[in-house]
Amino acid sequence: MSASTEQEDALVTSTDPLHPANLISELCASFYNLGWVTGTGGGICIRTDDKVYIAPSGVQKERIEPSHIFVLPYPQAEPSPHTDRIFLRRPKLNLKESACTPLFWNAFTIRNAGSCIHTHSQNAVMATLLWEKEKMFRISHQEMIKGVRIGGNGRTLSYLDTLEVPIIDNTPNEEDLKDSMKEAMEKYPSAAGILVLRHGIYVWGDDWQKAKTQTECLDYLLEIGVKMKLAGLPTVLNQ
Ligand SMILES: CSCCC(=O)C(=O)COP(=O)(O)O
Ligand SMILES: [Zn+2]
């Protein structure tokens, strides 16, 4: 092994379970069990001060190993959907970085996020269908609203706040969601996530713990919102 390969591999090799490469493997496996990243879709990325750790595309996300992780320097020119990116480390296997990379980058540059999660949860997909006309999922008076942060990185919402999550249209290629996701994040600075019609949701946070907590709270709220709507109950109560 050349010295440079050894140095590159050291970026994803650690006995620390909290190293981003170990965390991505572990979290993707647990997200799979929640039905969030089945069929290879979805995932999580983690950003430190100067590096971004990203999983491969189109692989069984619950079986990712730390050696499969890509490492990119941060900051770097916005990885647009169809241009080359700079890598500090690529896996030896013939893998490509997640197609979600430009979307994850939106969360880093627009919200200064330290982590972003993309799920294909059926709760998210059902919510996009039931709130398709409004282009906005809305729910109030639920305890779990208190686990969601304004804009994904601000103070937590109050029980008396109404949660709003914008819905954008899907595109045939994941990468092409970048501009409409950016537009929605800028138009709705308080939004803690972006739903994608018939596809899923993107949620971010200051770090992986906050991104995970908010994804769990949002998924819970989407699930109960869908159940309430199907039961004919209003999801928003008058204050
Ligand atoms: C059946 S997955 C379709 C593509 C998709 O929605 C997705 O999230 C892909 O993510 P990847 O990290 O595998 O590029
Ligand atoms: Zn997806």
From TrEMBL:
Reactions accelerated catalytically: 5-(methylsulfanyl)-D-ribulose 1-phosphate = 5-methylsulfanyl-2,3-dioxopentyl phosphate + H2O
Any one annotated GO CC term: cytoplasm
BP GO annotations: L-methionine salvage from methylthioadenosine
Locations listed in the record: Cytoplasm
Ligand binding (Zn(2+)): H118, H120, H199
Record EC number: 4.2.1.109
Binding site for substrate: C100
Positions of the Class II aldolase/adducin N-terminal domain: 22-226
Co-factor note (free text): Binds 1 zinc ion per subunit.
NCBIfam families membership: salvage_mtnB
Xref: HAMAP family: Salvage_MtnB_euk
PANTHER family hit by this protein: METHYLTHIORIBULOSE-1-PHOSPHATE DEHYDRATASE (PTHR10640)
Name of the protein: Methylthioribulose-1-phosphate dehydratase
Origin species: Suillus luteus UH-Slu-Lm8-n1
